[in-house]
Write a structure and sequence with these properties.
With about 400 residues, the protein is α+β, with helices and mostly antiparallel strands. Among the domains are: about 190 residues, Nucleoside diphosphate kinase-like domain (Alpha-Beta Plaits, 2-Layer Sandwich), CATH 3.30.70.141; about 80 residues, no CATH class.
Length: about 400
C-alpha cells in the first residue's frame, strides 16, 4: 500500500465551538494513521483565494457542493469573516498507507450524504438542502483533500504559507481593555500515543472546559538536550524530595541484612550520601520517558540533539488567568490525589505517566515555550519541512 501524507484542517467554527478534542479523538481512535504534524493558521485573504482556486479546478461531481465549499471559505475563513471572530484553524498532518483514502472514506466522511454519526463530518458537520436543492446550512467541520493531485496542491500551499499565516497566534485574539491575558503551555504526554486511541483528543476536550483559546500546536519529539533543560528544575528538587523515601527504603532493605537496628541518624547520613545518584537515576528515567532515549547511554553530544522516538502534542492556551485555569483542570501531580473529573484523575497512571504537563506560572511558561519551539514564529517550521520532504519523495 502506498505511504501518503494527508492533512485535516479543523475549521474556525469547530475551534470556536470546542469541537477540536472530539475531532482529534475520532481520527486517532480509528487506528489507521499516525499524527505527525500540527500547526495553527490564521489564513490571509491571499491564502484563502489560492485555496479556493484549487477547489475551482477539482472535479467535484455535485456542483452545489463545490459552490457550498467556496461560499463557506469566503464567508468564514477570512480574517474579516461573518462570525466576527478570529479565523484560527488547526492543521493536522497524518501519515500512513493510503492516508488520503482512509481519511475520506472511513474517518472524515463525505460532505453530503445520509444523516449518520460514525464519521467526523457525520458527528460534527452539517449539510442541509432545501426542497429546491439549494444548500440551506453547511458546516464541514474539517477540510481535507479528496484526490491525490489536489492533496499535493493544497499541501504545497499550506507549506508555502506556514510561516506567514501560521504558528503562534497570540496576536489574532482580542480581549477586553484593561485585562491581561496569559498564554500557557500544555504537553499531552507520550503514554497517550503508545496505542491508537481517543485519549489525546479526550484530554483536549476536557481542557476546553477552561474557555481558553488554542493559539499554538505542535507534534513534539523532544531531544535529550531539550528534555534535560526542560526538567532541570525537577532534578534540583528531586534530591531533597526523594530523600525521605530513600531513607525508608534503606531501613527496609538493611533491616533484613543486619541483625541489629540501625539508628535514624545513621540512615539519614546514608541517605544524604546517595541522594545525588538516586536523583540522577530518577531524572534520567523522566528524560527517557519523554524522549524514548536513555541519556546515560549517549556518548556523542550530537546524538543528544536528535529528536527522540516518544511523541507528544504541545498546545498553547491563551486567555485570562490561563495558567491557573489549566492547572485546576489538570489536577494534582499524583493521579491518586488529583480531584475528581480532572485530567490526571481520569487519565493518569502514576507520578510520571500522569497524562499531561502544564506550566505552573507565566515565567515558567515562557521558559518552556522557548524550549519546545512555541515561543514565536522565528524558528524553523517543522511542518513546512515535513510537507516538503513528502512532495519531494523523501519522506
Amino acid at each position: 500500500m502506498k505511504e501518503e501524507l494527508a492533512y485535516v484542517l479543523i475549521t474556525p467554527y469547530s475551534l470556536v465551538k470546542s469541537r477540536t478534542g472530539g475531532i482529534i479523538g475520532r481520527i486517532l481512535s480509528m487506528g489507521a494513521l499516525e499524527l505527525v504534524g500540527a500547526r495553527m493558521y490564521s489564513p490571509s485573504d491571499e491564502l484563502v483565494d489560492r485555496y479556493c482556486a484549487t477547489i475551482e479546478t477539482q472535479d467535484i461531481k455535485k456542483p452545489q457542493i463545490k459552490k457550498a465549499l467556496l461560499t463557506y471559505l469566503n464567508d468564514y475563513f477570512r480574517r474579516d469573516n461573518r462570525f466576527g471572530v478570529s479565523n484560527r484553524a488547526m492543521l493536522l498532518l497524518f501519515q500512513g498507507p493510503n492516508a488520503l483514502r482512509v481519511l475520506n472514506d472511513a474517518v472524515v466522511g463525505s460532505i453530503a450524504g445520509e444523516i449518520r454519526g460514525d464519521t467526523v463530518r457525520g458527528t460534527y458537520g452539517d449539510y442541509i438542502q432545501g426542497e429546491d436543492g439549494q444548500v440551506e446550512y453547511f458546516e464541514p467541520a474539517v477540510l481535507i483533500a479528496t484526490d491525490e493531485e489536489t492533496n499535493r496542491k493544497q499541501l504545497a500551499l499550506l507549506a508555502e504559507y506556514a510561516e506567514r499565516d501560521g504558528g503562534v497566534l497570540e496576536h489574532v485574539l482580542k480581549f477586553p481593555e484593561g485585562t491581561r491575558p496569559e498564554t500557557t503551555l500544555v504537553i499531552i504526554k507520550p503514554e497517550n500515543f503508545v496505542k491508537h486511541s481517543s485519549r489525546p483528543g479526550n484530554i483536549v476536550d476536557i481542557f476546553s472546559r477552561s474557555g481558553l483559546y488554542i493559539v499554538g500546536a505542535k507534534v513534539l519529539r523532544m531531544d535529550v538536550e531539550r528534555a534535560e533543560k526542560f526538567y532541570q528544575p525537577v532534578k534540583d528538587a528531586l534530591r531533597e524530595k526523594l530523600k525521605p523515601k530513600l531513607a525508608k527504603r534503606l531501613k527496609e532493605s538493611l533491616s533484613a541484612t543486619f541483625a541489629f537496628p540501625l539508628k535514624e541518624e545513621v540512615l539519614e547520613r546514608m541517605a544524604d550520601e546517595i541522594k545525588g545518584p538516586n536523583a540522577e537515576h530518577e531524572f534520567n528515567k523522566i528524560v527517557e520517558y519523554m524522549t524514548g532515549i536513555n541519556p546515560s547511554q549517549i556518548q556523542d553530544p550530537e546524538e543528544r540533539k536528535k529528536p527522540g522516538s516518544a511523541k507528544c502534542l504541545a498546545l498553547l492556551y491563551r486567555g485570562i488567568n490561563a495558567v491557573e485555569k489549566i492547572r485546576n483542570i489538570l489536577g494534582s501531580t499524583d493521579p491518586l490525589r488529583a480531584a475528581d473529573a480532572t485530567v490526571r484523575s481520569i487519565y493518569g497512571y502514576d507520578l510520571m505517566r500522569n497524562a499531561a504537563h502544564a506550566s505552573d506560572s507565566p515565567e515558567c511558561a515562557e521558559m518552556e515555550r522557548k524550549l519546545v519551539g512555541l515561543w514565536d514564529n522565528r524558528g524553523p517550521c517543522e511542518e513546512k519541512e515535513l510537507i516538503g520532504r513528502y512532495l519531494d519523495g523523501k519522506l
